[in-house]
Amino acid sequence: MNQNEIIEAIQNQSIRLDPEEGLDALIDAIGEARYVLLGEASHGTSEFYTLRTEISKRLIERKGFHFLAVEGDWPSCYRLNRYVKRYEGADDNAAAAMGDFTRWPTWMWANREVIALADWMREHNAGRAAAERVGFYGIDVYSLWESMEAIIEYLEQTGAPELEQAKAAFSCFEPFARSEQTYGISAAFLSESCENEVVKLLRDLQQKRGERRHADYQDGEESLSAELNALAAVNAERYYRSMVRGGPDSWNVRDRHMVEALNRLMKFHGSRAKTIIWEHNTHIGDARATDMAGEGMVNVGQLLREAYGDEVYAVGFGTHRGTVIAGREWGAPLQVMNVPRAEPGSWEDLLHRAGGYDKLLLLGSGHPLFQATLGHRAIGVVYHPEYERRGNYVPTRVAERYDAFLYVEESKALDPIKVGRVLV
């Protein structure tokens, strides 16, 4: 591999990322895709959120996209969805609507960048019929107890006959005191699983939604929400059970869940629905172009491409240096950390050497130089910048992993807000 040739190819094929021309070129390249996957190289970088917001606005306004699906929990994101859709009884401001973003890492969605997005979506939705309003949904799998509580609340409010069935199903989890790890160990090694109970409830809620006549769009979406909460409970149970065993199974359960949630959302929004998906690069970039495939892992990007082909367009993100929000360990207080200059010979390093400015690179699978395997930085919610050379670079054939790449020369950390009394 000749690094100078790759640098020259980047210079020839990239577009300087100014506020207008660069993003408009990306919108044109996306064409008629119905699944637009917008990544990020960390969960704590401001520019990744602001760029995705600008892209999403254009897709919504110019191409009629119907909803955002993000790497967040269904119950907490649905509260924000009710705000942006101007539902009766919703919170009266975006910060209040973020009140349920209490699961660590809370800063991922409770931040000023997402407030700006939510307020724009709410204004965009003003005056539109309920069925034409753009939604905001969380498709991740962690919300076992929160989803069960949301189902009970919905069934109580609607007087649904499934209420006692749901209470009986969820009583199976009571001995585990809201501890995912305790439940996972008991289910994986002691055969104390609650799987059958929640699977039956999901099937019954799905069947009832299909049979029921809904008074209006909001009523129908609230019913969908109960079903998606039940799906989250089913797959969260599987996720925590597989997590304690180790290996790729828990990862695969999680990403397959996200695709299943997407499929149900697309069906709800109609045969030509379009969605914008915000997730980490490790989820939206095709796993087959990395070392993940060799470890038996799949991801959202791969599964969607296999199912929908050219209707999927994936955009990776990266930065050369800057600051980021992360924790030193799981559950630790957030910190603003320095992101070191990219490792020599990495994808981010070559983008920097091709010109010290933000840029868009439209990849195209046919360019052989962009199919070289290079290290590509991935920062998680737990981060140790002093050790990142050991584990934060994913071997990647970038033109096979993404359709386009957005590069930020120097990035800065997210701007978190307070939820209640806690800085998140």
Automatic annotation (TrEMBL):
Q: Which SUPFAM superfamilies match?
A: EreA/ChaN-like
Give the InterPro entries listed for this entry: Emycin_Estase, Hydrolase/PRTase-associated, UCP036794_erythomycin
Coiled-coil regions listed: none
List the PANTHER family: ESTERASE, PUTATIVE (AFU_ORTHOLOGUE AFUA_1G05850)-RELATED
Protein's UniProt name: Erythromycin esterase family protein
Query: Which organism encodes this protein?
Result: Tumebacillus lacus
Query: What lineage is on file?
Result: Bacteria, Bacillati, Bacillota, Bacilli, Bacillales
